[in-house]
Design a protein that fits this description.
Strand order of the largest sheet: 3-2-1-4-5
Helix content: 25-40%
Structural class: alpha/beta
Radius of gyration: 17 Å
Oligomer: single chain
CATH class: Alpha Beta
Largest sheet: 5 strands, parallel
Order of helices and strands: EHEHEHHEHHEHH
Length: 225
């Protein structure tokens, strides 16, 4: 079987992406990060998802982005709540973590080269992406080019690295429908930016998730405040 490194945050999108990689015949090597995020409980969700899809391995890498801060997810900055659709569609929100996906993909590339995998799956989405610049096709294409320029395997022609983004053009509702078709257990996932025992239902991530489930015509299985 082909090997694939799958970035697995524990959220709805990454869970769906991991399931897609599995359905497409890849051996899944899940990769998660405990980077000092406010919502670190997502790591538990990532572990549960990796187990549920039968990942070959699940690597959790620890590093502390609180030392850099500058984000509501890694610094003492309040997470925005109750924002309207128009407010969420304008600008880059304070929940953006500086260069996070670039850092995550760099780790994934290193992991992929070390295990002989050519494919890296990431659940970025540029339809309901909350304004994050590192969720766009332009960024993914640029990183894929970098991956093949910056690695021994790429330069020597041993591998042709591909960054797979199966959700990039789907709405949140489409992602949920796709996940349900292939058996994703969304009760295992965590999307909320807050660090509580139950999802807040008010941050941008919760609002996008709830809207997606509503549009898909199904009930979100996780608990909310």
């Amino acid at each position: 079987m082909k090997k694939a490194v799958v970035l697995l945050s524990g959220g709805l999108d990454s869970a769906t992406t991991a399931a897609i990689a599995k359905i497409e015949g890849y051996e899944v090597y899940a990769l998660s990060f405990d980077y000092g995020q406010r919502h670190a409980r997502e790591i538990g969700s990532a572990k549960a998802i990796a187990k549920s899809i039968g990942a070959v391995d699940h690597l959790v890498i620890d590093f502390d982005m609180r030392k850099i801060g500058a984000s509501a997810l890694t610094a003492d900055i309040e997470v925005p709540t109750d924002r309207s659709d128009s407010e969420m569609s304008i600008g880059i929100p304070i929940t953006y973590v500086p260069a996070r996906n670039t850092i995550f993909l760099a780790f994934a590339l290193s992991y992929a080269e070390s295990i002989g995998a050519e494919d890296i799956f990431i659940g970025v989405n540029q339809v309901d992406y909350s304004g994050y610049p590192d969720c766009r096709e332009e960024f993914i294409e640029a990183f894929e080019n970098l991956a093949n320029l910056a690695t021994k395997a790429g330069v020597e022609g041993q591998s042709k690295f591909r960054i797979q983004t199966p959700l990039i053009k789907l709405t949140k509702a489409d992602i949920i429908r796709k996940g349900l078709e292939i058996g994703v257990d969304y009760s295992l996932t965590w999307s909320c930016y807050q660090g509580g025992d139950r999802a807040c239902g008010r941050c941008d991530s919760c609002k996008l998730r709830l809207a997606g489930f509503a549009e898909a015509g199904v009930v979100d299985p996780i608990e909310y405040e």
